[in-house]
Design goal:
This protein is of the alpha+beta class. It has 4 domains: 58 residues, Orthogonal Bundle (Arc Repressor Mutant, subunit A); 50 residues; 67 residues, SH3 type barrels (Roll); 79 residues, Alpha-Beta Plaits, CATH 3.30.70. The chain contains 11 helices and 11 strands. The strands form 3 sheets. A 5-stranded antiparallel sheet has the order 6-5-4-3-7. Strands 9-10-8-11 form a 4-stranded antiparallel sheet. Helix 1 crosses helix 3, helix 4 crosses helix 6 and helix 10 crosses helix 11. The longest helix has 17 residues. The N terminus is likely disordered.
């Protein structure tokens, strides 16, 4: 269990955190709680007694561990300036999503949080937001300009994932330039560098597949429930996908400034990373979609050079020549 090691909590903070923890993760033992808060078991026993005396309905589960009886609610939520800043910056990231319903929900959450903050904290948050800019060169489209393709998809699919409800959708496959109807069992949602993906069992292919949300043209959640494939774990699946036999090994060299930005956006685990004598960084990673990598590398212009495999270099040359052809009539 991860320790709460970023900063020590005073008793009041620890009691509040203890209630939140037991409500979200019942059946924790005194040893679990002591490890989580980095305190002694004796301190935990004193804290539990304090909670009981203050009216928190604590009980000890039959299968071991403490829990809080269902129905107990904490007093209205109170956030410190630091916590409020963390939550509200999170909503600002959400407002960068292409799905307008996500942006609208994020705005509503922002207003609700601001409405319950003390004036001093609200002023602090307002100042922080005025001086914090996310993605300044990629303005989110206004509702009038944005496409309707992803409207509400994330929330609809998140409910289907949580409730284990099957989905019927019309899906566009870019590589084949075609649409077809798919019935899938949604198993999870994954966000890569610039888009959301649905991981689902595809009844057409008889296997777990990846679907980009921006490729979903129509969507309907079915009444039928499903059971995930035996032993399926989303994180294990993504890890195994990174080691799939269908993957290709890519080697790319980045200029120093470009690599600082690219490192967090490489759509796979980096296998090797080394600094070359000329200051460039060479990285190797496995991925299954060469056309995606080619288009992704075009963002870096001459600051990124594809080394392997040879077909990727050829594809990059085709893209570069196409760009050059656009400017053939420009005098040098």
């Amino acid at each position: 269990m991860a320790r709460n090691a970023d900063r020590s909590l005073n008793k009041t903070e620890r009691l509040f955190a203890l209630v939140l923890l037991l409500q979200n993760r019942p059946n924790l033992t005194s040893r679990d709680l002591a490890e989580h808060f980095s305190v002694s078991r004796r301190t935990i026993f004193r804290d539990l007694r304090t909670l009981t005396e203050s009216g928190v309905p604590l009980t000890y589960a039959e299968d071991g561990g403490y829990e809080i009886l269902e129905g107990y609610q904490l007093p209205p939520l109170m956030l410190s300036a630091r916590e409020a800043a963390t939550v509200l910056i999170g909503t600002e990231f959400t407002k960068l999503q292409p799905d307008r319903s996500l942006r609208a929900d994020a705005e509503t959450v922002t207003m609700k949080i601001r409405s319950v903050l003390p004036e001093t904290v609200r002023q602090y948050i307002d100042t922080l937001q005025e001086r914090t800019v996310l993605s300044p060169y990629n303005e989110v489209q206004s509702p009038a300009q944005a496409s309707n393709e992803e409207e509400g998809l994330w929330f609809t699919l998140s409910e289907a994932v949580a409730r284990q409800k099957g989905v019927k959708m019309t899906y566009y496959t870019l590589g084949r330039d075609e649409e077809n109807v798919r019935e899938v069992d949604p198993l999870g949602l994954v966000y890569y560098a610039d888009h959301w993906n649905l991981i689902a069992f595809d009844h057409l292919r008889g296997d777990v597949r990846n679907f980009r949300l921006d490729g979903i043209r129509k969507l309907r959640v079915k009444f039928d429930s499903f059971k995930p494939p035996p032993g399926f774990d989303l994180k294990d699946f993504l890890r195994e996908r990174g080691e799939s036999p269908g993957n290709v090994r890519f080697v790319v060299r980045f200029a120093p400034g470009a690599y600082r930005w690219a490192r967090g956006n490489i759509p796979a685990d980096v296998e090797e990373e080394r600094t070359l004598p000329d200051g460039r960084t060479e990285v190797a990673f496995q991925f299954e979609n060469a056309p995606y990598i080619a288009k992704w590398l075009m963002r870096f212009g001459s600051d990124a050079e594809a080394i392997e495999p040879a077909p990727l270099r050829a594809q990059m040359r085709v893209h570069a020549l196409a760009v050059a052809a656009t400017y053939e009539d420009v005098p040098v």
